[in-house]
Amino acid sequence: MVSNHQAGHSVNLSSFLATHSVFTVEDLKQYMAQRGSTNQNTRKALLTYYRSRGRIISIRRGLYATIPAGHNPDTYPIDPYLVTAKLAEDATLAYHTALEYYGKAYTSYSRFMYTSEQRAQPLRFRDHDYVRVPVPHALRRAEKPMYGVDSHDRDGVKLRVTSYERTFVDVLDRPELSGTWEEIWRSLESIEFFDLKQVLHYVKLLGNSTTAAKVGVFLDQHREALMVEDDILNSLRGLIPSQPHYLNRGSRSQCRLVPGWNILVPEEILNHSWDEVL
């Protein structure tokens, strides 16, 4: 049996692994520095030793998952939300992934999306795809990349997740990231409450007239359930396009102009055609 000492280090990672289900090399570096060890070779030896023991596995370069003692490293489940949160220093669960995290997605996907200002190639790990989406340009321009982002703790890992309000607007702003209109509408309809002043503020921050109209149509359609007051709808109407726009530029067939919102909306949304019994 190879001991920690024989592996070339004296730092024991048991307490670290117990509180870090998914971790980066930087996480380990900080942990070791707090205990007086800054030697890079020691850190490498630790990683090699614990990988050989089946206590950690590599997700990608610089990113690892912890395997509890006695479990098979090839089959032990790794929480995809924790993986997503560690793919970049500013990684934020967003769009359909945020809906799934909150338990509001109509359908579960194998694709996990996060926003980050750091460029990154898509990652495939254990039947899941991890895709980076750029932070909305309007937020970068306003130097507010973390606007509408909440912090959550999950198994000792800090998660950044877009709030209900930002998620609602983001999904309508970029519907191609969240599936069909049925998926989007059903998912958003499962959210029982929004702080509508925050919704309005975020729509203004994005500065996209088409998005303002999309949000307006949804809130108008659900004004009773979401207790939408006239002043919110009137404020949104002041932000809509001056000429009719399509809800989705890529799908222009079977659309109808919604009065008061200058937006052409697919009939399936207006009629909730997915509710029809065939």
Could you walk me through the main structural features you see in this protein, from its secondary elements to its overall organization?
The chain is an alpha+beta fold. The chain has 2 domains: 1-78; 80-275, no CATH class. Helix content is 37%, strand content 19%. The protein is built from 12 helices and 12 strands. The protein has helices at 14-19, 25-34, 40-52, 80-85, 95-101, 137-141, 164-173, 181-189, 196-206, 209-221, 230-237, 267-271; strands at residues 22-24, 56-60, 63-66, 92-93, 111-116, 123-125, 128-134, 149-154, 157-162, 245-246, 255-258, 263-266. Strands 4-5-7-6 form a 4-stranded mixed β-sheet. It has a 3-stranded antiparallel β-sheet with strand order 1-3-2. It has a 3-stranded mixed β-sheet with strand order 10-12-11. The radius of gyration is 23 Å and the shape is elongated. The termini are far apart.
Multimeric state: single chain
Class by SSE composition: alpha+beta
Q: How confident is the prediction overall: mean pLDDT?
A: 91
Sketch the major β-sheet: 4 strands, mixed
How many beta-strand elements? 12
How many domain modules? 2
Poorly predicted runs are 1-9
Strand content: 15-25%
Topology:
Layout: H1 14-19, E1 22-24, H2 25-34, H3 40-52, E2 56-60, E3 63-66, H4 80-85, E4 92-93, H5 95-101, E5 111-116, E6 123-125, E7 128-134, H6 137-141, E8 149-154, E9 157-162, H7 164-173, H8 181-189, H9 196-206, H10 209-221, H11 230-237, E10 245-246, E11 255-258, E12 263-266, H12 267-271
Parallel strand pairs: 5-7, 10-12
Antiparallel strand pairs: 1-3, 2-3, 4-5, 6-7, 8-9, 11-12
Helix pairs in contact: 5-7, 7-9, 7-10
